[in-house]
Amino acid sequence: MTGEGIKLAYREKPGSSGDVVLCIHGLGDAGSSFAPLFETGLFSHLTLVALDMPGCGKSARPSDFSYSMEDQAELVCRWIEQSDYEKITLAGHSMGGIIALFAAERLPRERIAAFINIEGNLGPEDCFFSGLIASWAEEDFEKEGFFGILEKLRGGTPHDPKEVMEKYTANFAKALPRAIYRSSVSLMLESTHGNLKERFSALPCPKAFISGERSLTPSLARWLEKNHILHFTVPQSGHFMMIEQQENFYEVFLRILEKTGKTLG
User: Is the predicted pLDDT of residue 264 greater than 50, yes or no?
Assistant: First the structure.
């Protein structure tokens, strides 16, 4: 199902220019993961919007929704179509990168100013976390697996230290387990069979990829360079760069906005 009537919560901060950036969070996270962008004065020229995807944050938590990447992208498209924004820059982190990519493909070209992919999944190698979740049966994950994964994440990951993951898991703990599970299954499917690199490269709008210094793989860096995709790395950070290295993330975000023609005044 495509989620008729599902309402998405969001945070909006109006800016002084006509430029709009719509932020989409990752698996089990919430729009609050983009709070650093809202709280610094560096982006006062932008209208910033951060969505809570279904099952996360303060958005609706339907138990019968598919939570597929395609259906979540459809919800984003409907939200954009109902807004007053003439043109937007889409920024998606992790799972949000796939959702934003699919939304950018569906929306009229004139509505998309640019697409900023913040370590969004581009292949099966990006599915270590979602793969662990998808390996469970849905019922077992809801009863047992969710809590085990939550505790494991709180201890940190190879790319992100414990203090960073504690902030992420504060949102993860409040998400609907079924939403996390079904999103993970769809993430695995799309990352393996969805031709995401080709689709990302083929987008006709200006685009860029942001990676964390510790989480970037050499093969991806080579692919981005080969395909002439604008790429910036956030120093001294892993996957959750917005949390760990806020100042470095601000600098990279501003440089991308410069490159894609956004106003900085």
Answer: no
Angle at 188 between CA 182 and CA 193, to 5 degrees: 125
pLDDT in the model for residue 259: 85
Cα pseudo-dihedral 237, 241, 242, 244, rounded to 10: -40
State the sign of the Cα–Cα–Cα–Cα dihedral 121, 239, 242, 228: negative
All domains in the chain, ordered by first residue: 10-259 (3.40.50.1820)
Q: What is the pLDDT of residues 149-196, one digit of tens each?
A: 999 999 999 899 999 999 999 999 999 999 999 999 999 999 999 999
CB-CB contact of 97 with 237 (8 Å): no
Reported as half-sphere exposure (CB side, CA atoms, 13 A), residue 106 has a value of 19
Q: Which residues, 6 or more positions from 181, have their beta carbon under 8 angstroms from its beta carbon?
A: 133, 134, 136, 138, 141, 142, 145, 146
Q: Which amino acid is at 264?
A: L
pLDDT of 5 over the 90 cut: no
